[in-house]
Amino acid sequence: MSNELDDILKGHPGDDAEKRKSLGELHDDLHADDAFDQDSAEGLAQFDREKLPVTIEQLNAQLRRHTGKKKRRRKPAGNNSYVYIAVITIILLIILAYIVIKKI
């Protein structure tokens, strides 16, 4: 069984600390330092180890689906006449304020 667990990392480029930590949890070699680690170690101990790779793949697929880029849909350009009126009014007020200040 030990060789099977060690083979988990083979075939996956970029062996990182998370994979090694997961392997340690599977081997029960991990010393839990805080409550979160203890809870996760207990949860993994109760889990059926034969179904673990399938479950990991399902969770990873769900994670990719939920965190993937979502396509933005553009709102149709509606009636922008109020925007144009507001911009023109603001520009006219700025010009009027400039003229009044300049005469003083």
Provide a descriptive summary of the structure in words.
The chain is mainly alpha-helical. It is built from five helices and no strands. The protein has a domain at 2-67. The chain has helices spanning 2-6, 17-27, 35-46, 52-67, 81-103.
Compile the SSE list and pairings:
Elements: H1 2-6, H2 17-27, H3 35-46, H4 52-67, H5 81-103
Briefly summarize what is shown.
64% of the residues lie in helices and 0% in strands. With 104 residues, the chain is mostly helical.
Please provide the ordered H/E string of secondary-structure elements.
HHHHH
Helix fraction, binned, reads 55-70%
What is the averaged pLDDT score?
76
- Beginning-to-end CA distance, first to last residue: 91 Å
Q: In this structure, how is the largest beta sheet organized?
A: none
Query: Based on CA inertia axes, which overall geometry fits?
Result: elongated
Low-confidence stretches: none
SSE-based structural type: mainly alpha
Tally of helical segments? 5
Strand element count: 0
Alpha-carbon Rg, integer: 31 Å
Strand content: under 5%
Comma- or semicolon-separated keywords:
104 residues; mainly alpha; 5 helices; 0% strand
